[in-house]
Amino acid sequence: MAEFKEVPADAPATEKVTVWFENRFPTAFAEYKKHLSEYYAPKNFNFWYFFGSLALLVLVIQIVTGIFLVMHYKPDANLAFASVEYIMRDVPWGWLIRYMHSTGASAFFVVVYLHMYRGLIYGSYRKPRELVWIFGCAIFLVLMAEAFMGYLLPWGQMSYWGAQVIVNLFSAIPFIGPDLAILIRGDFVVGDATLNRFFSFHVIAVPLVLLGLVVAHLLALHDVGSNNPDGVEIKALKNEKGIPLDGIPFHPYYTVHDILGVSVFLMAFSAIVFFAPELGGYFLEYNNFIPADPLKTPNHIAPVWYFTPYYSMLRAVTDQMMYVFVAIVLAGSLLAAAKAKLPALFKAAIVGAGVVIVGLMLAIDAKFWGVVVMGGAVVIMFFLPWLDYCEARSIRYRPSWHKWIYAIFVINFFILGYLGVKPPSPVGELVSQVGTLIYFGFFALMPWWSRLGECKLVPTRVTFAPH
Q1: How far separated are the first and last CA of the chain, in Å rounded?
Q2: Is 338 exposed, middle or buried (0-12, 13-18, 19+ CB in 10 A)?
């Protein structure tokens, strides 16, 4: 048993209360010191580092508003849409809670996309932070599942038909596809069983996984330490007390610093909630204000904006696109066999594997490969720590032309997102096919292009200008 701390009789009441709790709950105080007051973060954080704390804030908003929505929502195919209307019209302040939740869903993806982009440009996925990045990608994947299941719950036209289209994609998986689609739906069509399943996962199962991953993400981050815009390890230089020379305690410095980001975010968030909760049909689609009708298909079915880049990649995979993939696989296997310093037998095995893959690609329907491409677009990000071979972590010290590659990647992602909102067209299909190749080329060719060029000299200490 730990020794109790004594407090002077004339000490302030706050100190007495604090010591009383610390004597009886020392673990909480030890964790507070480890993760806040004695967690030393680099002193050169910039505005890109607001988005991690903002993601945590939006998660809290979603949980709290979700709890209040569940109090009045009915997970029944005959009552779901009416219960949402009841929340909007009859529940005191129900409209505000619902709009906060719907806007929060889009806000979550905005801050998460920006948070991931910051990790990309500053090399926050590099050693020793590989596990931090993997947990982050897992959070993104689970967040997509959570958003998709929540999207069905209003039981509007776009909710219903969007779920119908996406769930039907699983039927394209060879052998197990049809049974898997029925298992997910709980029926032969999207219906009451599907709604109940998605409600259960959206409210209970997936949030628990999400919270666990968030905790793992933060613990892994605080074990290895935060990255910074210079990509310099602050733990390399410490004073006689073992404190990093370029580090400052996260609390109070960055807890106060983050108030600026939170204030700006809440102003933008409130402006959308009160003045434009639909945001032109991107945050809340107009078809979703119509009750779900299994007998009437909307003219154009599209997911919410944060899924549209991946939806574009799904639609880009046609029978003609498969021939491009076949050519890429064959060329890649031949190049790998030619470059690898292996015995001839192993080189033949590499080429043979490429031929087998090509055979499978031609034998299986393009719809299935579209699903593979859509899923692969997320999964490939998990391998980023082992694809980047550049000597410098941060974009600040990489060759200048690297910035153009990142710019092309971002612009291409926006274009794919825009095309995913629009109805299919021959020109849009071609552009999305090129965009899909650019997206995967960015990652697949990274081991090659990241080695090229001469990096600038990386400083031993962080560069910091007080402001």
Answers
A1: 47
A2: exposed
